[in-house]
Amino acid sequence: MQSSLDEATDQWGIKVERVEIKDVRLPVQLQRAMAAEAEAAREARAKVIAAEGEQNASRALKEAADVIAESPAALQLRYLQTLSNISAEKNSTIIFPLPIELVSGLLKK
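The structure assignment produced for this chain is given below.
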């Protein structure tokens, strides 16, 4: 742009230092292409953010599993808390799974 301006104004001894563009008209096809590119960039950023969220969630889940693995009582308490939450949400039937060792001990007697 500078060279085009210099060609036109040098013969009169004028030097253009700054040009301000106030109105730009783009063809519809170029506008659509730019919009598609911007949308693709937004979708890519959204995927990266979602992946980071999944990664953080998996780390938190692993830490929780490590804590629960240290204490069998913690696992039982979590199980009972989950059952309590389920029963509070809906009026539904809850099936309590029992350890096979407990059931086989009861059947033998």
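Interim note for the steering committee: Residues 58 and 109 are 45 Å apart (CA to CA). The radius of gyration is 34 Å.
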